[in-house]
Specification:
The chain is α+β, with helices and mostly antiparallel strands. It has two domains: about 120 residues, TATA-Binding Protein, CATH 3.30.310; about 60 residues, no CATH class. About 20% of the residues lie in helices and about 30% in strands. The strands form two sheets. Strands 2-3-4-7-1-9 form a six-stranded mixed β-sheet, with helices on one face.
Length: about 190
């Protein structure tokens, strides 16, 4: 199975998400930037994760304190980052090969995490735009700027408040490249 779910996740939203992930004592995080020669340590907190990329794994039966890389599947968790006035897109993603008990667990866990996000976050409220082009409808040879609300990106409940605190704050695909985005206004009522 190959799949991904894209999101904009404020650190407050991430705390809730990680608490949900780690509510199962068999589940651990791995810092994908670890240089530990024994393999990355199995973590029960985000605090030791230095970068934006970690993985969600099931501790193998009889496994030690480090991940050996022998897993047949894991969930990649690319965290949203706040860099200055920007918050970036993140995602969870999997790529498994059917047939193992662990791959089946990874697929079930991914679906459960996707359901958790979709129940709490909102999609189709974010519109990507190119800040170097004028706003306008699409025409031959040029896409509309901004684009239509993106149904593939789920926006965390704390993001709108964070953006409202400072007019310079923006959503960006990646802190060093990519389109910017704004959120549709909340409907009146």
């Amino acid at each position: 199975m190959r799949s991904q779910l894209r999101f904009i996740m404020h650190p407050d939203d991430e705390r809730d998400f990680v608490a949900h992930i780690l509510s199962d004592d068999r589940v651990f995080l791995i810092d994908e930037h670890s240089n530990d020669p024994a393999g990355p340590p199995l973590l029960r907190s985000m605090e030791p994760v230095a970068g934006s990329l970690c993985s969600i794994v099931l501790r193998p039966a009889g496994g030690g304190a480090n991940h050996t890389g022998a897993a047949s599947g894991k969930i990649q968790f690319s965290r949203s980052q706040i860099v200055g006035p920007l918050i970036t897109e993140g995602r969870i993603a999997i790529g498994t090969i059917a047939g193992s008990e662990e791959a089946a667990w990874v697929e079930r866990q991914y679906k459960a995490l996707s359901k958790f996000i979709k129940a709490r976050y909102t999609n189709s409220i974010l519109r990507w735009y190119n800040p170097n082009l004028p706003f306008g409808p699409g025409e031959p040879g040029r896409s509309a700027n901004p684009g239509k609300p993106d149904p593939q990106v789920w926006v965390g409940p704390s993001v709108r408040g964070w953006l409202a605190e400072d007019p310079e704050r923006r959503i960006k695909q990646h802190w060093s490249y990519g389109a910017l985005a704004f959120l549709e206004p909340k409907p009146a009522g």
